[in-house]
Amino acid sequence: MLSPEELSALYLSAKVASVATLCCLPFAICLGWMLARYEFRSKFLIEAMLQLPMVLPPVVLGYALLVLFSPQGWIGQVLAHWGIELAFNWKGAVLAAMLVAFPLLVQPIRLSFQMLNPQLEQVAASLGAAPLKVFFSISLPLVLPGILMGSILGFSRSLGEFGATITFVGNIPDETRTIPIAIYTLIQQPDGEAAAMRLVLLSTGLAFAALLANYFILHRYQRKLGQS
Amino acid sequence: MLDCQIDYQNAQFKLQLQLTCAEQIVGILGPSGSGKTSFLHLLAGLLRPQQGRIVLNHRLLLDTQQQIFVPVHQRKIALIFQKALLFPHLNVEQNLRYAEGLQPLAQRKFEFEQIVELLELSRLIRRKAHQLSGGEAQRVSIGRALLSAPQLLLLDEPLSGLDQQLKQQILPFLKRIQRELQLGMIYVTHHPEELLELQATVYQMQKVQGISRLQRDNVMPLIQPVF
What we know:
- The complex is a heterodimer of chains A (about 230) and B (about 230).
- Chain A contains 11 helices and no strands.
- Chain A has helices at about 5-35, 45-55, 60-70, 75-80, 90-115, 120-125, 130-140, 145-160, 165-170, 180-190, 195-225.
- The model of chain A has no long low-confidence stretch (mean pLDDT about 90).
- Chain B has helices at about 35-45, 90-100, 110-120, 135-145, 165-180, 190-195, and strands spanning about 1-10, 15-20, 25-30, 50-55, 60-65, 70, 75-80, 150-155, 185-190, 200-210, 210-215.
- Chain B has 6 helices and 11 strands.
- With about 230 residues, chain B is an alpha/beta fold.
- The interface of A and B includes residues 125 and 226 of A.
């Protein structure tokens, strides 16, 4: 049904999006919690920087990544010492996807923390739970719907990432040619339209499945908490 | 045995009080805004006073001069809020076990079954928090507090969300706790009749020139006859 090239693009997209979402999660949870719970002077700066990837053209992000993370770039030079190379391989695609997906992960997580009643945490503490224990046994399970929703949004956004990825890591088959880039490549070819259509349908299906999964898991969890 | 002296100030008001008591049940009355809840939060360690000293059962919990501040989770003071605040992702048994599990075996004061029996919770044990009535949920939250093996139980208007009939279903349990478990309680309310029923030693919170003070008071004249 799918050609080896298409399968490779599908596998690569799934891998990049999953790894990007997983790598974003710990940071997104920390930042979401911080933004929900604390007021501080430089907060507006953090919020602006957080929103920046959503309003900047992805090509600009890709270029910035290239400047910073290429082997000659500021950060790339340091990473090269450790044997880590990001430009023009799939790990770079993960970094690009993380950058564009991160704001989408943070927002729902932050909202969930804002809706969490802080008195529940105070009760847990007064029962003898140390702060970390409170966080992992009370706060985290109660914001799980937000974490899930953010993950699905971030995962879907990573699947669709094109501009920053192609600028930063290029269009290398089996390494950085994800579904959107494969579609773009096929459309450039004179006889590629049918194959492009198959990939278009595939990515639509993937996105739809992710949203459905999100809906059902959320629904189940809310029923468990008695909110619906 | 509680001995405390606290100076606390925030944007809205100033609280200055001194209390030494050895009674089992201490009741605190006062108009809203007089700082009753803040007092409990200061005792529990949810608030930090500018100056003060708290000693509970010969254990120093707070001394601003020596820069000692025992955090909430190490104070062994359980707090009952107006709402039951059960953990919504856990059922009744898990809520109770949560509190029990936080205590090392040697420090547990009450048996799980003892508390379930005392508060008549066995029928509710498999239910989720949202499947309980207000009175049932409050009983579970009291049980949960007891299983955390506290040295002192703070109750912040625990019956205010309940109607008269339900109150009569909770008060006897509190009396039973006092009688059978010998646990110190500080009970904040603006209903003197609850304190009478618990035979509490009553203190009155008063606002004098923007400063809240705690004064020993005779509660009897405050009670209006019920016809």
